[in-house]
Amino acid sequence: MTLSPAVHPTAYIPVDHYSAVHLAAQAARSVAQRCGLQGALPDQAAVIASELGSNLAKHAVDGALYIQALPLGNGVEILAADRGPGMREFQRCLADGYTTTETLGAGIGGVNRIATSFTVRTHEPGGTVACARLTPPEDADAGRRAVGAVCLPAEREEVSGDACTVAETEQGLTAIVVDGLGHGPEAAEAAQLALRTFARAPDQPLPGLMTTVHRALRRSRGAAVGLLRLHAGRAQYCGVGNVRCLTLSQQDIRNRHTGQPGVAGLEMPQPLVREIPWEPRLTALLHTDGIDHRWAYSPDPFVLRLPAPLLATALVHGHRRSRDDATVFTANLHQRLS
Question: What Pfam families does UniProt report for this protein, alphabetically (predicted)?
Fold first, then answer.
């Protein structure tokens, strides 16, 4: 069984001034060390964050970095997003030494060389989304899995009442997304309790797993919970409360589901499993109500075509309700990142 270590909220660093680049480098080094990366890897993570942050500071509008442990596997992930103007000479930007300013030009090319995997999508005038992952050599395959997650606390909150994690077992890839009622420490406590409960037996049938989480949360303030299981030719969703589940192709949104009415830990109906029509190339997505659900009414074609980790980043960057905790989880079993 492979279980995600990514139970900490994502470090969010808006790059509205060049001084943010130093903060990003510090955050990346700290996250890498917390993940147990050794040797030169924490410093390499800092370099990647510094280069991506510098690129945002020089060229982008409304740019930000999102730094966290890998959603699945051992490593660190540095995500970047902005609202424009996009990279006009994208392939040239990937080469070491290319620059549009008076610098050494190590930026994007240097990231591409250092990172275990580096995935970028850009379009004019809508901006750029990037995902750089750094893993030990033995975990390089995990760095190329198309699994994404971003979890942010509400503005002015130090902890997130949202949480998510994912496990890979013989039953398939199983994810949990939790939205503790309200905000702050008590909501975070409920969310983390749900994750610990999930981690003890993520291979249970989904109704039993939901019931187990419900019982564990009885002395907490309660939470909305979404469970997603993906395996060859099949997808299942079981939810209570306002965690939404969608499946997407590169052309449109295929299915939408919301959880049953209720609150895990307080009052919950008999769990219902929804069998979702599934094709290997589809992307599955869970998100809390910290993401404005109206994004799915008329989704940007650019967003639909994004690989799973970039999709999670784009939704948080473009559709987050900043006064609420916000989480997005995405997975595509067919994709592999470059």
Answer: HATPase_c_2, SpoIIE
Can you tell me the distance from the alpha carbon of 112 to that of 93, in angstroms, rounded to the nearest whole number?
10
> What does pTM read for this prediction?
0.93
Calpha distance 277→258 (Å, rounded):
16
Instruction: Determine contact, residues 52/80, Cβ cutoff 8 Å.
Output: yes
10 Å CB burial of residue 98 (0-12, 13-18, 19+) is: middle
What tens digit of pLDDT does each residue of 117-156 get? 999 999 877 789 999 999 999 999 989 999 999 999 999 8
CATH 3.30.565.10 fits 7-140, yes or no: yes
Q: What's the rounded Cα separation, in Å, for the pair 310 and 216?
A: 33
Kindly give, in sequence order, each residue whose CB lies less than 8 Å from that of residue 91, ignoring residues fewer than 6 positions away. none
**Backbone phi, then psi, for 187, in 5-degree steps?**
-65, -40
Q: What angle do CA 147, 151, 153 make, to 5 degrees?
A: 175
How far is residue 238's CA from residue 126's CA, in Å, rounded to a whole number?
34
Q: Where are the domains of the chain?
A: 7-140, 145-336
- Which distant-in-sequence residues (6+ apart) come within 8 Å of 81 by Cβ? 63, 64, 66, 127, 128, 129, 130, 313, 314, 316, 317, 318
